[in-house]
TrEMBL record:
Composition bias type Low complexity, residue spans: 161-182
Residues of the signal peptide: none
Name of this chain's protein: VOC domain-containing protein
A Pfam family that the UniProt record links to this protein: Glyoxalase_6
Residues covered by region (Disordered): 126-190
InterPro entries hit by this protein: Anthracycline_SecMetBiosynth (IPR052164), Glyas_Bleomycin-R_OHBP_Dase (IPR029068), Glyoxalase_6 (IPR041581), VOC_core (IPR037523)
Residue stretches making up the VOC domain: 39-153
């Protein structure tokens, strides 16, 4: 979406006086307000064995994966929290093998507990040795080799949540990944 900040937008910034913009709508450049994205409504991907992978995600993460494509089936209702949406360079090693093009990050309330449970179930999990400014992270792969990152936000990260109904925010341009795909700013665990 392109456009400038609507006049009634609320400005909130991370770190400095004003780095993040929460906006109720976008100006389309012609004085008209456009609808805005409010969050991620779905994540869709191919799998060699969809039924087995659906069951694996449900068992290890409690993520409701739809067995059918019926509109009446309920999806997974998430708790509140920040979602990072970021593109990485083609040569980034953040996704594992070069043929992998995505990685998902799940927020967790207890990283140590999640790592312990996954390891007890025979899943290889690699916690980061570093505590980042926005929390702690661990990496793993699902049975088909797709990368998963677990993130336990710290108090500072949780404090950024503007609360229900505040609308989405967009990160400043300086918080994106660098040319090598190395995360910066709030994507430290990237």
């Amino acid at each position: 979406m392109r456009g400038s900040r609507a006049p009634d937008a609320v400005v909130r910034r991370r770190g400095a006086e004003s780095p993040t913009l929460a906006r109720p709508a976008l100006d389309d450049g012609m004085g008209e307000l456009m609808a805005r994205v409010t969050g991620i409504g779905g994540f869709f991907f191919r799998a060699r064995d969809p039924d087995a992978l659906n069951e694996w995600y449900a068992r290890h993460f409690g993520v409701i994966m739809l067995d059918s494509r019926e509109y009446s089936d309920p999806g997974w209702f998430q708790d509140r929290g920040e979602t990072v949406f970021s593109a990485f360079a083609q040569d980034s090693d953040a996704f594992g093998a070069p043929d992998r093009t995505w990685k998902i990050n799940f927020r967790v309330t207890d990283l140590d507990g999640a790592v312990e449970e996954l390891r007890a179930a025979g899943v290889r999990v690699d916690p980061h040795e570093t505590d980042y400014p926005n929390g702690r992270f661990a990496e793993l792969e699902d049975p088909e080799g797709n990368r998963i990152q677990l993130w336990e936000p710290n108090a500072a990260s949780l404090a950024r949540d503007p609360g229900p109904g505040a609308g989405p925010s967009t990160a400043s341009a300086t918080s994106s990944a660098d040319a090598a795909g190395t995360p910066r700013d709030r994507r430290e665990g990237g």
